[in-house]
Structures are given as structure tokens and as C-alpha cells.
Amino acid sequence: MRLTAVFLATVLLAACGQAPKKVVEVRVAEDDVALARAASLAGEGHYAAFKKAIGLYRTLYGKRPLRAKVAAPYVQTGLLLALREKQVGLDSPATLDEALAVIDENTFLAAYRDAALIIAAIPASSRGVQR
What is the mean pLDDT of the chain? Predict the structure, then answer.
């Protein structure tokens, strides 16, 4: 009987004691901040900003949970950067190839393939702005 009373008292104390503290994970919105920063940079519309934005999008695209969210602006910025490179005389296919690789990985971006092919066909300008 005494053993039963001790057991019940222990169970009662354990059940009525302080509740275990919940560990709540607070997700810092670093990725959202980086995504907003990349969009802001891409909106500036000049070569250096496009390069910085592409770097941010590349990093974000490397994170699997963000791929669907980042893929379209990543490709758009990549295509704009490739076009800008052609305009200033930099004939480097790396940016365009990167955009095409993302397009190939994401079927919902197939419409961007035509724009990529048009940009690929544009010759690099070596004379600056033509008037």
C-alpha cells in the first residue's frame, strides 16, 4: 500500500509539476531579406547591380526549399544581365548558359527559352551605344 501511495504521489507530482518549456524555432527571415535585396538590385537596371543580384539569386537558388520561389526572378535577372553584357561588348556565354540551365530544371520557365535564344543571337557590341 505504501509503495502504491509513493508511486501515485510521484506520478501526481510529475503530472502537476511545471510544464516542459516549448522550444519554438524562430526563423530569421534572412532568405526573405536576401530575396528582397536581390529584387531591389535587379530593379536598378545597371550591370553592377545585375551582377550582385545574380550572386544573391544563385545563393538562394542553391537552397532546395526556395527554388520554386527564386527560379523566375533568377532567370529574368540572368537574361537581363546576359543582354547587358552583349550591349557593353562582353561576349561571355556563362551567364546565358546559367539561365538556360535553370530554365531546363524548371518546366514552368519554358517560356523564357525563346528570350534566351534571341539574346544568344544578338552580337556583342564593341562600339558602345549606337545612335
Answer: 83
Cβ-contact 40, 57 below 8 angstroms: no
Q: What is the DSSP string of the chain?
A: -HHHHHHHHHHHHHHHSPPPPP------THHHHHHHHHHHHHHH-SHHHHHHHHHHHHHHHTSGGGHHHHHHHHHHHHHHHHHHHHHTT---THHHHHHHHHHHH-GGGTTHHHHHHHHHHSPPPSSSS--
Q: How confident is the model at residue 18 (pLDDT cuts 50, 70, 90)?
A: low
Q: Which of 18-22, 43-47, 80-84, 91-95 has the lowest mean pLDDT?
A: 18-22
Q: Are 92 and 82 in contact (CB under 8 A)?
A: no
